[in-house]
TrEMBL record:
Its EC number is 4.2.1.46. Its cofactor is NAD(+). Pfam families: GDP_Man_Dehyd. This is dTDP-glucose 4,6-dehydratase. CDD domains: dTDP_GD_SDR_e (cd05246).
Length: 339
């Protein structure tokens, strides 16, 4: 029996990178291909522990480069695609929406066309709860898979557009697909511009921590390891054409998250600095993951255990995030991959 080939797009990013490591370590019988363009948030230093393994392969390409992607798919004949690659920072989407449309919409269409070309076994599209818009501060309301899509930022609009494309390719061309929509992820190797790693790094350096508005916006937090196990389950057992929400049952205000990190690190809340609110800042996200739980998934982390593990990881891996902040990480993969 020939070995299965799984293409993971965006495998040098945060969630995709954790998923690549998860799959390489768990499935020695699969060949895992990490496809990434290595833009500003792409970091290959996180894969030092697996880069010599025989079932790990790295490919540097742009998912929106149609000829390159079509040729790659024809050459490798992938069995599965797990699609993470996306521009994902909301603030950046507000200042430069165009790159989000190019990567998140055009890039997804190219991947779908390439998958059709070789009759892929399954295309798993990893999306976000932000496509649903926002919820009121009502603890009885949650996003379900049937919630209408009402994106409020250029980023979430680009992700909603790619979700619709994936659905359309299933309905029109019978392409086997699943879509997952997750809540806010956190954990090891999170790029330092995001809330939790930004707070950890700034608190450790006794620097001010910016908090948007009054800090009362609520997010449902999901440890990245739990997200990886969810996608693994959907890849292998998800019903063709279905959407699955992935949530951690861990709703926290942004201010509570920052205060928890400050308290854990033994610092003063005087480090908190309230700044002007983000444009179009959604009030609350909260996921109902019942459908996925019925498939057999359960998160292993609650927020208390997950944030402790994450803070400990950042304390133990200062070299990683310090060289990310300084930009030195680029020297590693430029040398390693002769770029």
């Amino acid at each position: 029996m020939s070995r299965k080939k799984i293409l993971v797009t965006g495998g040098a990013g945060f969630i995709g990178g954790n998923f690549v490591q998860y799959m390489v370590d768990k499935y020695s019988e699969y060949d895992i291909y990490n496809l990434d363009l290595l833009t500003y948030a792409g970091d290959l230093t996180k894969h030092k522990s697996i880069e010599e393994k025989s079932n790990y392969h790295f490919v540097k390409k742009d998912i929106a480069d149609r000829d390159a992607i079509i040729n790659l798919f024809k050459e490798e004949q992938f069995n599965y695609v797990v699609h993470f690659a996306a521009e994902s920072h909301v603030d950046r989407s507000i200042t430069d929406p165009g790159i989000f449309i190019h990567t998140n919409v055009v890039g997804t269409q190219v991947l779908l066309d390439a998958s059709r070309e070789i009759n892929i076994d399954k295309f798993v599209h990893v999306s976000t709860d932000e496509v649903y818009g926002e919820l009121e501060f009502d603890p009885t309301t949650f996003f379900t898979e049937d919630t209408p899509l009402q994106p409020n930022s250029p980023y979430s609009a680009s992700k909603a557009s790619s979700d619709f494309l994936v659905r359309a390719y299933h309905e029109t061309y019978n392409l086997p697909i699943n879509i997952t929509r997750c809540s806010n992820n956190y954990g090891p190797f999170h790029f330092p511009e995001k809330l939790i790693p930004l707070t950890i790094s700034r608190v450790l350096n006794d620097e001010k921590v910016p908090v948007y508005g009054d800090g009362k916006n609520i997010r449902d937090w999901l440890h990245v390891t739990d997200h990886c196990s969810a996608i693994d389950l959907v890849l292998h057992k998800g019903q063709n054409g279905e959407v699955y929400n992935v949530g951690g049952h861990n709703e926290k205000t942004n201010l509570d998250v920052v205060k928890t990190i400050i308290e854990t690190l033994g610092k003063s809340e005087d480090l908190i600095e309230f700044v002007n609110d983000r444009l179009g800042h959604d009030k609350r996200y909260a996921i109902d993951p019942t459908k996925l739980e019925e498939l057999g998934w359960k998160p292993t982390y609650n927020f208390d255990s997950g944030i402790k593990q994450t803070i400990d990881w950042y304390l133990d891996n200062k070299d990683w995030w310090e060289q990310i902040i300084s930009g030195e990480y680029r020297d590693y993969f430029n040398k390693q991959y002769k770029m």
